[in-house]
Amino acid sequence: MVMTKSQKNSGPLLLVPHDLSAEVTDEDRRRFFQIVSTDLTPDQVQRIVAPPQSYGKEKSVLAVHWHPEFIPLDLVSQRIDALFPNRVNELIIPTQHNVLLSFGGYAGVEVDCYSRGFNQKVQLLVHFEDERVADAPVFRSILAHTFKYRSSQLLEFIHTITEPKAEWIETAARETGADGAVIQFVQMNVRKIETLLEQHSDEIPVASIKNKLLRNYFDTLRETYGDGLIDRVQTYLRAVKMIVKAHFPFKYFYRTSDVIAEARSIGGGVVIPHPEQFWPILLADYDVDGYEIWNPESRRYTEFLITVLHEKNKQRRAGQPELLLFMGDDTHLGEKVKDPAHQNTAKASREIGVQPAWHDLMIKKKLIVANMDKDRIIREYKNRLAG
After folding, report:
1. What architecture is the 49-150+251-386 domain classified under in CATH?
2. Could you give phi then psi for residue 283, rounded to 5 degrees?
């Protein structure tokens, strides 16, 4: 069932098509390859190399938590030059999820791991000088295993819908108000995605095998079925995804302490990201260089965390390095090349190295008391990575 233009513009569309075929059509295939492709059009390249805003007054750039995704690093470099044309002091390290990438003499990664003590998945930002990981077989094998296992979450997400886990589906439907017709519409389309993944497994870029594949596919259906229906679908899908993630067995991840130990053995630095999510780590006393105190999704406790870490630093033994205070922009560059109508506006607005909290007057006051500022953190962390 295709909506007319007047139907699309008449407010929330809550109708669900009853004539949807389970057969994969040429149009389904076109949509699928559109969302899994990592090739950039000239317009998409321009969106990367020409950011909408420049920060000419910014002399220091600290960016140790950002994700290039499938965007080539030479284009990323052009974007950074456009963002900060007058920078004189910088530490810019990419942190792809479970994939080690090098940029500007440094290498970095965001690693998923598991902390048994408080039964929780934990993420670590791990950074190196490039030469330290030129030959790091154990650390690289840890990342390869983790990447493969983390990618399997997409298959679990799909199977929860296509081979329905009744209890999970009922919970998601109850939480979101999704009725049987919406659930059936989602299931039929996800079965098509499952079929296409199986048929074209050798052609699909590894970077595209992630949970957001389902979200992106359904966004391509907006023109056909309208925003009202697809918004309901996306709300329901998010609920299913969160249930799948909550039940995903973390025991197959490497232990947090083991990942830290291996990174330290080859000269790596370790930072804890996502401050609101990982409170227990503050108590676990892991061997880390510092903590994020601000992140676009974690702003609530910034001033409190500065105070807590300042107090922890005052209690550290003589000769024990201070815990450094970081801010993470958590930019996902793949979001910037989507059709603007399908972007997550909040995520698309993030920029590498742009962390407004550095300029907040109350936060600056706390940082002064803690004897921390961006230039000092850049200098100190570079020294640690140099060994």
Report:
1. Alpha-Beta Barrel (3.20)
2. -90, -20
